[in-house]
Design brief:
The structure holds 2 protein chains of 2 kinds.
Chain A: E1 6-7, E2 13-17, E3 29-35, E4 38-45, H1 53-57, H2 65-69, H3 77-92, H4 98-126, H5 132-151, E5 160-161, E6 164-165, H6 173-196, H7 199-205, H8 213-218, H9 223-227, H10 235-238, H11 259-281, E7 302-309, E8 314-321, E9 329-333, H12 335-341, H13 343-347, H14 352-362, H15 366-370
Antiparallel strand pairs in A: 1-2, 2-3, 3-4, 5-6, 7-8, 8-9
Chain B: H1 2-29, E1 55-58, E2 65-66, H2 73-77, E3 83-91, E4 97-107, H3 116-120, E5 126-129, E6 143-145, E7 152-153
Classes of the chains: A alpha+beta, B alpha+beta.
The structure holds iron/sulfur cluster (SF4) (2 copies).
The site of one iron/sulfur cluster has 13 residues of chain B, from helix 2.
Chain lengths: 371, 158
């Protein structure tokens, strides 16, 4: 599998990018075949951060396995927990109280904004602009503070659990979210001034890493990567769960298929998330935050599938139950894996400098790909 | 025509660069906007959120009494074997044998702060503390016994 590095018989160069490279945001290892500066082939090698989470889940109970999923795509930990909880609830036919549903959706959207903020800063940093990182982290910090206050953690939340949410909202929650919304709106123009409108940035992004609509579908891309190519793939719209069917928001679609389109999808998705939060934050119904459930959950025999829209795309949770307290088999369909598989196709024939501009807009989280 | 477009591009680029630099300049001259925290210099004033999950502790009252019955619900709820409950048998007032906690062993180095044990405890004996400075020189120091020496169960807790 590992070819000898160096020069091949045709005069091409084989080089490694990663697994310790700042542009790969983790331990992604790309073996590239280069002809001069032109990319001929890109081969991702995975497995550096494989923790066998799927296998681990088989020995954990249905309450315990939720917390592990925070460690897959750690930037959308709420949404991962949400998907697992939904799958368990679907199997056991647990009715989740309205209050918990609204809290979950607000948390999901806050997570989405936080994740896109981090992506925005990190991507600008990949392209050589260092300060945007600080600006995005300034707003992201407000979200993590809100999370810390209500959920008790900043990254690996384990707040959404089968039956509802673990704790009730902090009394200050609504006030702080509202102040975050007004802060975000006042700072959002800065993002566009700093990066989006910059000609150098646009020249590096436009027409780079083009993924056609057909290819996006055949590679199984989801999330902003697919929507940048004009594929409607928002699970929140197509298969609405919880209260997503009741809120008004648009699915952001761009048709360019290049890096700039994917960039614009993510930037505009933040605004849509703000729109969803605004509709819900004043209408959190009173009542229970958790359904009454037994201490030990037992799923009926059968197979259950649930999909949710994380910040990176579609996460599928597939549980095979033999009727016991632990799953017989669990499979996660992670968005990053399919999105990464399209990378080789996207950068083929372009220059090596464009690789970073393309990879940055895929928003890869390696633990999500490797699990 | 090519030359004119080229020069136009340069000016457009300069303009967009200056637009971006305006943001940078604004923060350069407005020191009130600085949000950096000087940890660990600000340790005295640093306030963590009350719910922040930093470590599991057992609640003791002023009489050195806790509410732990030794039921092991937390041990079973923990996904990675962080808690070990060792029970003993005590004679109660009527001379009957009764189960009681002997040692509550907590491996901080294994704990993922998932809060499942706290939720599982039927008597609300354990809770999360916002202390996050856990570095020690020896790994064995991270294995803790949570019930204090000489402590006993509160009267009336079953
Ligand atoms: S917080 Fe989680 S990992 Fe830590 S002791 Fe409790 S149940 Fe175990
Ligand atoms: S801490 Fe709570 S759950 Fe754990 S043994 Fe004591 S009473 Fe039971």
């Amino acid at each position: 599998m590992f070819e000898e590095l160096g020069t091949t018989a045709e005069g091409d160069m084989l080089i490694n990018i990663g697994p310790q490279h700042p542009a790969t945001h983790g331990v992604l290892h790309l073996v590239m075949t280069l002809n001069g500066e032109t990319i001929k082939k890109t081969e991702p090698h995975l497995g550096y951060i494989h923790r066998s989470i799927e296998k681990m889940c088989e020995s954990l109970t249905y309450r315990q396995f939720v917390y592990v999923t925070s460690r897959m795509d750690y930037l959308s930990s709420h949404i991962n927990n949400h998907g697992c909880s939904l799958a368990v609830e679907k199997a056991m036919q647990i009715e989740v109280p309205e209050r918990a549903q609204v809290i979950r959706v607000i948390m999901d959207e806050l997570t989405r904004i936080a994740s896109h903020e981090l992506w925005w800063g990190a991507m600008a940093m990949d392209l050589g602009a260092f300060t945007p990182f600080f600006y995005s982290f300034r707003e992201r910090e407000t979200i993590t503070d809100i999370m810390e206050e209500t959920c008790g953690a900043r990254l690996t939340m384990n707040y959404i659990c089968p039956g509802g949410v673990m704790m009730d909202l902090h009394p200050d929650f609504q006030k702080r979210v509202k102040s975050f919304i007004s802060l975000f709106k006042s700072k959002f123009d800065e993002y566009n001034e700093l990066v989006t409108g910059n000609i150098i940035f646009q020249n590096r992004m436009k027409g780079v890493g083009v993924l056609s609509k057909e290819d996006a579908i055949s590679y199984g891309c989801t999330g902003p990567t697919a929507r940048g190519s004009g594929v409607s793939s928002d699970i929140r719209k197509l298969y609405p769960y919880e209260v997503y069917s009741k809120v008004q928001f648009d699915e952001v679609l761009e048709t360019g298929g290049d890096s700039f389109s994917r960039y614009m999808v993510r930037i505009n998705e933040m605004l849509q998330s703000i729109k969803i939060i605004e509709q819900l934050i004043d209408n959190i119904p009173e009542g229970e935050f958790q359904a009454k459930t037994k201490a030990v959950l037992k799923l009926p025999k059968g197979e259950f599938y649930q999909r949710v829209e994380t910040a990176r795309g579609e996460l599928g949770i597939y549980i095979v139950s033999e009727g016991g307290t632990t799953p017989h088999r669990i499979k996660f369909r992670s968005p990053g894996f399919s999105n990464l598989s399209a990378l080789g196709h996207m950068v083929k024939g372009s220059k090596i400098g464009d690789l970073v501009a393309t990879m940055g807009t895929l928003d890869l989280v390696i633990p999500d790909i490797d699990r | 025509m090519f030359i004119i477009d080229y020069i136009k591009d340069i000016f457009k680029g300069l303009k967009s660069l200056l637009t971006g630099m305006r943001v940078t300049g604004y923060y350069f001259t407005h020191h009130k906007e600085i949000i950096t925290e000087q940890y660990p210099d600000n340790r005295a004033t640093l306030k963590m959120a009350d719910r922040f999950r930093g470590e599991v502790v057992m609640i003791h009252d002023e009489n050195n009494e806790h509410a732990c019955t030794g039921c092991s619900a937390c041990e079973l709820a923990c996904p990675n074997g962080t808690i070990k409950i060792i029970n003993k048998f005590e004679l109660n007032a009527e001379g009957k044998k009764k189960k009681a906690i002997d040692t509550f062993i907590y491996h901080l180095e294994l704990c993922t702060m998932c809060n499942l044990c706290v939720v599982a405890c039927p008597t609300d004996t354990i809770k999360m503390e916002p202390n996050f400075e856990h570095s020690v020189y020896d790994r064995s120091k991270l294995t803790k016994v949570l019930n204090r020496p000489g402590s006993k169960i509160k009267a009336g807790v079953e």
